[in-house]
Amino acid sequence: MNAPEARAGRVLRRWKLWLIPGVLSALVALVLSLLYMGGILTPSDSLHRLPIALVDADAGPPLPGHSAPLGAELADAVAAGTPPGQVQWQRLSRERAQEQLAAGKVYGALVVPEDFSRTVAALTADQASARPVLLTLTNPGTGSLASSLASQITQQAAHRSSRSIGEQLTAAVPNAPPTARLLLADPVDVQVQQGHPIARHTGLGLSAFYYTLLLVLAGFLSANLVHNGVDTALGYADSEIGPWHSRRPTVPINRTQTLVVKMVMTAGLSAVTTTMIMLATVGILNMDAPHLPLLWVFSFCACVAVGLGVQAINAAFGTLGQLVAMFVFIAFALPSSGATIPLQATPSFYRFLGAFEPMRQVAGGVRAILYFDAQADAGLTRGWVMIAVGFVVALVFGFAMTHYYDRKGLHRMVPSPS
Question: 220 and 253: one domain?
Fold first, then answer.
């Protein structure tokens, strides 16, 4: 005789039914909120050695009473006037600073031009033909927020220097007319220019981040689709589409061979997903993307590395693996990617994650290809190395776990439905 059909109300009254989903949902919501919001709320307060170039090209001559050109004094004052540890001022020549900007090594630059001392001296001699200029150079390829933070810091330093110079000039010309005193009080014209311009269709330097996010999501989702599809096809999971439910006969196969099937399929489908991403972003949406063959190969390898990592985690943790993989490749990776907020403007926990989290490594390589002419030291070499490391780790971890389960006799075999 068939047992009576259960009612929803009776099922819902079982407190144990609520326990695991409730605890996991609460923990996931709590951790995600702390991770995502903790990395973005105080970028200015979290600054740690933000790299900015400081260029003193001032050729003099020294002003009366000074032993060195004004630019040297200004550069020393700028470096000393920044709170310790917040900014990594890099004293560079103009040519070297341009190279660092073009490689994404610095987020901006403050430049003292060659004629700075001469134009300042002309103000006190009433021979001024133009105001002295300080240049602040931005680097939008490093990300809009990173470039903006650097620009704010360099502009503030330039304006402080202008007021300091103004005090010296006002004291040197005490009888200047009121109009001239206004000019002498804040004499420097602070000009903002792009130090390394990027193309127009780049989302103000955010296209690298969103393209990277697409690669990681594609690898993550494709791997999970393959994982569930293979388990269904081999008879280890039910197939349910709408009201239709079925279960295939179980295919006798061990965990290691199942993982081989899933990883090979994941690698093969990565070629399809990579092509579709490039077709949509570059072909249809016209994203500016130089070095297309290199971009495709790098994107494919990134998708494969992410996908194999997901398969390894699923093989090790079973049903819980999809949640673990979500934290590894999405939850921890997004706030530590350094693609929207530079790691130098995040708390130390995110800088630690950024050393190995996959999205950080992929974003560096994509940014180098899209904005910095695919230079190896712009992040491309590190991207390739870390993708290779991720590939090896996924294979070793995944097959080590499945081999262990198989050797212990922890098989997935279940009776086939009659």
Answer: yes
